[in-house]
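Standup notes
- DV: blocked on the single-chain target, sequence here:
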Amino acid sequence: MTQRRVGLWLVGAFGGVGTTVTLGLSALSRGLIKSTGLVTALPDFGKLGLPEAAQFVVGGHEIRESSFVDSAEEFRKNSGIFDADLVAACRDDLAAASARVKPGVKLGAGPTIAKLGTWGDESAPRTAAEAVDRLEADLAAFVKAERIDHLIVLCVASTEPPFQTRDVHQDWNALNAALADGGEDLLPASSLYAIAALRGGHTYLNFTPSLGASIPAIYQLAESTGALHGGKDGKTGETLLKTVLAPMFAHRNLNVMSWVGHNIFGNRDGVVLDDPSNKASKVDTKDRVVTSILGYKPQTLVTIEYIPDMGDWKTAWDHIHFQGFLGTKMTMQFTWQGCDSLLAAPLAIDIARLADVEKQRGRRGLMRHLSCFFKGPEGVEENDFFKQYDDLLRYVAQSA
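- DV (later): unblocked, structure below
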């Protein structure tokens, strides 16, 4: 019996998360590493029929002309991550995946992201329709060449600036008609990728705070093609802790007066988030979770600062000022340091595996049960991590 082949198409392929996902899948399939960090490797998920690492075929889009090997070496030298022997053992898989990466599009990505690379600039699309057509053709060619049974387009690209939606974004027919003449201001690049994926009936997952599929018009498109989608903004570090700790304060009836979070990190995400416009998208999803869990709004502040020498390492310091019995004011502080890409990559693999389960069961539309993986889960108001995880386990029990 031929083994099922799951395509994983990475938008922003040669970035830290894309490279770590690709290296991780290769190392897992070769039995070189343990499954530490993968939620779907826990016993609760054992009966789901999840795809194994060897079943994934990686390709992608990128605006920087590079390779997975070069990217892995860059992270190894600059951030001290990835063992040299591991990269060497996976070199053939990384090279094969690199050959399947195509030049991406920058239309609507904003000036800061556009400056990261020039790959494909000589044939850059002039309209949104041209961009979507080209992206969709790349996806179709990949599916055909690699005999893919299910294609998952996973956006792990840099964070775009906030996007203001208009009437045209409320209806797919109107938006589809506008694509022909649409330029930079019609849609951000993440949404062009989403349309290309969903129009072809493929799955689209947004691991970034960018707009992606998060407008009514694209929801309607997904419904019409029966495509799966989910997101957004992977919950990996400081915000994960917020969604774990905030329920504690709520359940103990402790009044949080203020919650301040200060984040510093390097890498290309840091370069992009150093632009105030791009930073605003990230701050929004990081800041809203505390209020939604507590049921009231304390004074909050989230800062993100680019420190080049940090590389792929991120440090967050949080200060929580709260009031207890007899009005006594108390303080909790924590420091979190983690490797950004190594925290994100296993979760990206998790949601891809779970999306394939949905595809095998013939399901369609928004995957709300993935909410515990995201800072701003689509279609879900609940941000309490434990309640979100219980929702995932209920889904597992119903699907196993």
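- Follow-up: The chain has two domains: 6-234+342-399, 238-338.
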